[in-house]
Automatic annotation (TrEMBL):
Pfam families: HMA (PF00403). It comes from the Bacteria. Residues 23-90 form the HMA domain. This is Cation transport ATPase. The keyword Signal applies. Residues 1-20 form the signal peptide. Keywords: Signal. One of its GO terms (molecular function) is metal ion binding. InterPro entries: HMA_dom, HMA_dom_sf. Gene3D superfamilies: 3.30.70.100.
Length: 161
């Protein structure tokens, strides 16, 4: 009986520790030039599971997405949805929480669905301030070719949260 209780406790806490994820995305969208375009993209994005709040701004040329707490969405899925609606996804400002991995002079942040390679930026020095373990950061994800979305991104950090 003690073993069963112990397994249940480990399984429960193991589930809670798996929260490495994308939390917020401000996605630049190229090709929106009318209000019905923005409305159509917003409707398409709202159909995705894991989004808490969606707002598409024609004036800004961006989709503003807040993701729910235990979502399993990836930036790749979001950009594919933008593409499916007839637009190009450009760079994105994101908030991610993930596991920091440092090896061979490379720093990466891994979420449950993707890997973000941290661009070392001497001007802000943020990459050198990251500590091992789970980190929460804000940054700009570099634009990828819409035809080659891999789930491996380059991110320039703007803030450690």
């Amino acid at each position: 009986m003690k073993k069963i209780v112990m397994i249940m406790i480990v399984a429960t806490f193991g589930t809670f520790s798996s929260y490495a994820q994308l939390q917020k995305v401000d996605q630049e969208v190229f090709g929106m030039d009318c209000a019905p375009c923005a409305y159509g993209l917003e409707r398409g994005l709202k159909k995705m599971d894991g989004l808490q709040n969606v707002r598409v701004s024609l004036n800004d040329g961006k989709a503003y997405l807040e993701l729910s707490k235990n979502n399993s969405l990836s930036l790749k899925q979001i950009q594919e949805e933008v593409k499916k609606n007839g637009f190009s996804a450009k760079k994105a400002e994101v908030v991610i929480e993930g596991k920091l991995i440092s090896k061979d002079d490379k720093t990466e942040i891994q979420t449950d669905t993707e890997t973000y390679s941290v661009i070392k930026d001497a001007s802000n020095g943020l990459s050198s301030k990251l500590k091992p373990g789970t980190v929460k950061v804000k940054g700009i994800v570099q634009n990828e070719d819409d035809k080659n979305l891999s789930g491996n991104w380059k991110i320039r950090l703007t803030e450690i949260l």
